[in-house]
Design a protein that fits this description.
This protein is of the alpha+beta class. 27% of the residues lie in helices and 37% in strands. The protein is globular, with a radius of gyration of 15 Å. The mean pLDDT is 95.
Length: 132
C-alpha cells in the first residue's frame, strides 16, 4: 500500500487596488514574468500552446489559466503538480492576489522561508505594476 504524504503548503496574499480583471490580465501574460519574477524568469519564450520556455535553462513551464475563476497557475510542463498556484479574487474594493506553493514534507524550514520571502517580493511587484 502506498502512503500518501501531502507535504507542506505555504500561501501568501496581497491586496491590490486594481480591478481583478486588470490583475488577472497582467498575471496571465507569461511575457511579463521577468518583470515580477526576475529570479525565476530571466527570459521567457513561447514554445507551444500554454507552454513557455523560462530562464537560462529554458525549462518548460505551462501557464494554466481559467479567467472565469481567476486561476493562473505556473506549473512544470512535465509535472503539473509542481509550481506556483495563483488566484485573483475580488475583494471589497479591488483584488486579492493569492500565491500558493507546495514543499516536500522534509523541506528545510530555512529553505521554505527563503522561498516564501521571494514570493512576498513577487506579490509586491505584481501589485506595483498593476496599480500604476
Amino acid at each position: 500500500m502506498t502512503t500518501f504524504k501531502p507535504g507542506r503548503a505555504e500561501t501568501r496574499t496581497i491586496s491590490v487596488s486594481a480591478p481583478p480583471a486588470r490583475v488577472f490580465a497582467y498575471l496571465s501574460d507569461a511575457r511579463r514574468l521577468p518583470e515580477w519574477a526576475p529570479g525565476f524568469a530571466t527570459s521567457v519564450e513561447h514554445d507551444h500552446g500554454d507552454v513557455w520556455r523560462v530562464g537560462e535553462d529554458a525549462r518548460p513551464v505551462a501557464v494554466k489559466v481559467a479567467p472565469d475563476h481567476g486561476v493562473v497557475d505556473f506549473v512544470s510542463a512535465d509535472a503539473p503538480n509542481l509550481g506556483l498556484f495563483a488566484r485573483v479574487v475580488p475583494n471589497l474594493t479591488g483584488a486579492e492576489l493569492i500565491f500558493s506553493l507546495f514543499f516536500p514534507e522534509d523541506a528545510e524550514p530555512a529553505a521554505v522561508e527563503a522561498q516564501m520571502a521571494v514570493v512576498d517580493e513577487e506579490l509586491r511587484a505584481v501589485r506595483a505594476h498593476v496599480e500604476r
